[in-house]
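Justification of resources, computational component.

The compute hours requested in this renewal are based largely on the per-chain cost of generating structure records like the one below. Each record pairs the submitted sequence with a full structure-token output. That output is archived, and it is also reused by downstream analysis tasks.
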Amino acid sequence: MQGRIKFFNRTRRYGIITIEDGQAWFFHETGIVGAPVTADDLCTFDLVDDPRACDDQGHPKMMAANVEKIGTANEEPPPDPCRLFIANLNYSTAEADLDALASAYAPLESVELVRDKITGESRGFGFIQTQSAKGALNLIAKLHGIEVSGRRISVRFAQRLKDRM
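The structure output for this chain reads:
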């Protein structure tokens, strides 16, 4: 799922994630994967049973886990078309495979696998260019964290070269 961090209390080590329809999910600091999160960050997450809480009927409540930041609050909205970075690809994955996987969720402009200059073999990452920011967000929500050819892939907005330096 995809949502936005409503708040995160570093002292008590918990926070709340909200999604578009207004639902809110509790998460604990131990459920964060990768970079630290702050309020208003865009993130992906999974829902799991909360071992510490039950509803009125004794059923476990759900909580967010595997929270991973995919965008920040202060970054400008991505322009159309959007360029996405896709990492942890199996080295045998071809551009046609990636195109077929991604085009099911959004209209694409291009798919590019980065290859070794000497051997020509895949380096395990690449870029996907979508026609719209909405399509890019849909691709991130659907593909980030899924297993493709035995490897869990990562999909996020590509950084501009000037932002990396």
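The radius of gyration is 18 Å. The chain has two domains: 2-71, 82-164.
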